[in-house]
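Page 42, continued from yesterday. The earlier attempt failed because a stray header line got pasted into the input along with the sequence. Redoing it now with the clean sequence only.
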Amino acid sequence: MKPDQPVPKPHHLLVAIITTAGTFPETGFDEVPENQPVKVELDQASKKLGIANTNGWIATVGGRELNISQSYVENHLTGTVEIQWGPREGGGGCR
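This time it went through. Structure tokens are written below.
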């Protein structure tokens, strides 16, 4: 954690959602309850960033895919978390 970064309250974490459409929140992190489903923050990011269709998108942290219907605790996330959220990468193919 960076020295100028706030420390979350007990049973909370700091979350940022990073997409190709932008980052939510625009700067810094949102403080969210650790038992909140990941989907709640993704829905807020989608609305704020004007993303109309997230079908087939996946959320990852450190290359590990999250179960967005589960809480942060159930996904083994704590502290400060940057979630990468976007379409699943396709598998090559012909050009």
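Notes: Residues 38-49 form the longest helix (12 residues).
Reminder to self: strip header lines before submitting.
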